[in-house]
Amino acid sequence: MVSRTLLLDCGNTACKYQYGEEHGHLDSTEAFVQLVERIEPEQTLLATVSKFGQTLGECLVERALPHRKVRVRPDWQGLKLAYAEPERLGVDRWLTLVALCGHPRPVMVVDVGTALKIDALDGGDRHLGGYILPGMRLMRRALVDDTFALPPVDQDGALAPGATTRDCIANGAVLALAGAVDKARAQFGPTPPDIVWTGGDADRVRPFTAEPGQLRPALIFEGMRRLMKDADYMESLA
Ligand SMILES: Nc1ncnc2c1ncn2[C@@H]1O[C@H](COP(=O)(O)OP(=O)(O)O)[C@@H](O)[C@H]1O
Ligand SMILES: CC(C)(COP(=O)(O)O)[C@@H](O)C(=O)NCCC(=O)O
Ligand SMILES: [K+]
């Protein structure tokens, strides 16, 4: 069943899909319609935190294509969420925790997308809370939008102090995000957690942190595949 299920992970910048061995990005509803007409999935599992993802959900309804939308379940398989209102946690964040559930040591996930999200588990499937920061592009764009003199910057950054405006901006974002990740690690208790990285911009930050950790680009899909194996959970979405 999993192999004939189309998995969609719609973030605020990019909508990613997996279908068996195939994966890619979808940047329009037309591209989405072409995809489903070509592959004819048995069903679609949609995880979205974006308007575009919501539109794809409507598109599936209009075409009467079988689909389910991932919802946060506060007590999934003993995964205890730190939020008093668990349903407020972004499904993308929850899916990274689902993927890491059962990790035998404290572990911190760093998801570098539109926003940079940090969440940690204590090694016993208890969520210790997290952080939400502007991601790489948002951080740079905020400077352009709210100043008169600062230009848009596209180049990759590094940790060294800049000697041009562009380098100062590019490297400032790297410094802020890599620094935040290093600082966050110390907030999750006396045992420094393992680090797992995901998100489209992970490799723009990861090389500049103290601990390289592990890169798992498809972590959200790993979470979705785990949920697919849980018939009760899938049933609860129907
Ligand atoms: N094919 C691609 N399309 C869009 N963004 C991409 C692509 N490949 C890498 N990226 C990078 O990934 C970032 C988005 O990361 P992602 O984790 O998908 O964010 P979100 O889940 O918030 O949409 C972009 O800012 C861009 O730098
Ligand atoms: C924090 C987010 C905007 C991140 O979105 P993304 O960077 O993946 O596009 C998303 O996880 C979200 O809408 N969360 C709901 C609020 C929360 O998690 O507390
Ligand atoms: K995301």
Automatic annotation (TrEMBL):
Pfam short name (any one): Pan_kinase
Pathway the protein acts in: Cofactor biosynthesis; coenzyme A biosynthesis; CoA from (R)-pantothenate: step 1/5
Catalytic residues as annotated in Swiss-Prot or TrEMBL: D92
GO molecular-function term, one example from the UniProt record: ATP binding
Localization per Swiss-Prot or TrEMBL: Cytoplasm
Cofactor section: NH4(+); K(+)
UniProt enzyme class: transferase
Domain of life: Bacteria
Main location as per UniProt: cytoplasm
Gene Ontology biological-process annotations: coenzyme A biosynthetic process
List of residues binding substrate: Y83, G90, V91, D92, R93, T165
Positions that bind K(+): D111
InterPro entries found in the cross-reference section: ATPase_NBD, Type_III_PanK
Any Gene Ontology CC annotation: cytoplasm
Cofactor note: A monovalent cation. Ammonium or potassium.
Enzyme Commission no: 2.7.1.33
Keywords, sorted A to Z: ATP-binding, Coenzyme A biosynthesis, Cytoplasm, Kinase, Metal-binding, Nucleotide-binding, Potassium, Transferase
Catalyzed reaction equations: (R)-pantothenate + ATP = (R)-4'-phosphopantothenate + ADP + H(+)
Residues the record lists as binding ATP: D9, C10, G11, N12, T13, A14, C15, K16, T114
Record note on quaternary structure: Homodimer.
Function: Catalyzes the phosphorylation of pantothenate (Pan), the first step in CoA biosynthesis.
Family: Belongs to the type III pantothenate kinase family.
Protein name according to UniProt: Type III pantothenate kinase
Species: Saccharospirillum salsuginis
Gene designation: coaX
